[in-house]
Amino acid sequence: xxxxxxxxxxxxxxxxxxxxxxxxxxxxxxxxxxxxxxxxxxxxxxxxxxxxxxxxxxxxxxxxxxxxxxxxxxxxxxxxxxxxxxxxxxxxxxxxxxxxxxxxxxxxxxxxxxxxxxxxxxxxxxxxxxxxxxxxxxxxxxxxxxxxxxxxxxxxxxxxxxxxxxxxxxxxxxxxxxxxxxxxxxxxxxxxxxxxxxxxxxxxxxxxxxxxxxxxxxxxxxxxxxxxxxxxxxxxxxxxxxxxxxxxxxxxxxxxxxxxxxxxxxxxxxxxxxxxxxxxxxxxxxxxxxxxxxxxxxxxxxxxxxxxxxxxxx
Length: 314
Ligand SMILES: [Mn+2]
Hints:
Elements: E1 2-6, H1 9-21, E2 26-30, H2 35-40, E3 48-51, H3 60-68, E4 74-78, H4 83-86, E5 94-97, H5 102-110, H6 118-128, H7 135-141, H8 146-162, H9 167-178, H10 187-210, E6 212-214, E7 217-221, H11 227-234, E8 241-248, E9 253-260, H12 267-277, E10 281-284, E11 288-294, H13 298-311
Parallel strand pairs: 1-2, 1-3, 3-4, 4-5, 7-8
Antiparallel strand pairs: 6-7, 8-9, 9-11, 10-11
The chain binds manganese (II) ion.
């Protein structure tokens, strides 16, 4: 089998679970907007598992058609909104979707043949996506020591944060997890995670010091750190939504991450409504999502979000 997965903790844990059932499988990483191109590099005669990859709005029809004509069997496991509805009802692709982490979907799909340690891999993936409060995760977490498990998940997520483009290292992490061993058994993971924590603490202080309130949103700009965490800390001023903006002056674009503290807001829906009107794109999960916006429209974009927040809650 060939596995193509998102290169974050949830994707990597999903890939490790799949590899537990087929140790000869090869692992590749991709992102939603490069998935179409990355599929070109793969062998269409061999079976394929696509894990934790949202379908990019711009190329989703092409991806669906490519997968529908695949020679081998295709398994598509994902938890991003709209993945299921993008495939035709009678598709040759086996689609597993739901509103739990991809790791949990993969774990449940692969079922009873997995070893005990697969629970730990599933939990680390779920924690990586902040999706560990599901009934299955809560039950399985009670069968482990919660503190130890969160430490291992922290090692994994921290290491991934500071070793972003190192696909070979990440493939080795998949192997480590697939062989039922915890992240602490690779010194490079632990050392990278410690480095990530040190960087995060100074980043957090910079974000919290410079975050500005724009209506109901706390916004921080260009402080060189992990965007999702930047968004969480930007909300420290007491607002219900945090946003972290990375401006790309040469391309005239801003990449924005959002984190919703007040869980009554469906930020994915707001972004999908507001973004297209301003030549932007955006979406993700209700409480964790992102957008790419032309720099010239940035202020208008935040105004439009605040207008929608004022007129609606979920
Ligand atoms: Mn995920």
